[in-house]
Amino acid sequence: MLSYKNIFIFFVAGALIIAFFIFPPHPRTEEGDQKEITLVIDYGDGTKRQFRGDGITFMEDENAWSVLQRAAAAAHIPLEVARGFYPIVINGKRNGEEGKRWALYVNRERHRNSIPLDVFIKEGDEVLWKFE
User: Fold this and answer.
1) Main-chain dihedrals φ then ψ at residue 100, nearest 5 degrees
2) How far apart are CA 131 and CA 9, in angstroms?
3) Whole-angstrom distance, CA of residue 110 vs CA of residue 88
4) Which residues have a Cβ under 8 Å from the Cβ of 28 and sit 6 or more positions away?
5) What is the Cα–Cα distance from 30 to 21, expressed in whole angstroms?
6) Using CA atoms, how far apart are residues 43 and 99, in angstroms rounded to an integer?
7) Which of 37, 80, 29 has its CA nearest to residue 62?
8) What angle do CA 126, 63, 103 make, to 5 degrees?
9) pTM of the model as a whole
10) Taking a C-beta distance cutoff of 8 angstroms, is the pair 64, 106 a contact?
11) Which of 8-22, 29-43, 104-118 reaches the highest mean pLDDT?
């Protein structure tokens, strides 16, 4: 019979294996080769948080979810996600509050029905998550 400790270890190992395939390791670039992208989180109340550089540089096979996840991890911003890694809460702002939802824009183009894992980012892009 499996103990709770063994179940926990099994669960964590499985989660790490899944995370490896969803977010494969990226080769590090040389300091001079870093390519910038910009991430903006607009809380819909006049508050915006912008990330550029500071670990938010472009990586091959980058997508809108991985950019948000890296910035949130670096800045200790809590995230809650639904299927497809679409955020339902960013830093306490929950979909449905005030009749607003999190919307994804890349270079000012809205990605209304897109899964963030499928929205690929290019060097120089601006990713905006807006609570509207």
Assistant:
1) -110, 160
2) 37
3) 17
4) none
5) 24
6) 13
7) 37
8) 60
9) 0.71
10) yes
11) 104-118
Backbone torsions φ then ψ of 71, nearest 5 degrees: -65, -45
The pLDDT confidence band at residue 29, using thresholds 50, 70 and 90, is very low
The CA distance from 31 to 45, in Å, is 36
Which residue shows structure tokens 């809205």? Answer: 110
Supply the CATH classification number for the domain 34-131: 2.170.130.30
d(CA 118, CA 46): 29
SS3 state of residue 111:
coil
The CA distance from 130 to 95, in Å, is 11
Which class for 61: exposed (0-12), middle (13-18), buried (19 or more C-beta within 10 A)? exposed
The residues spanned by each domain of the chain are 34-131
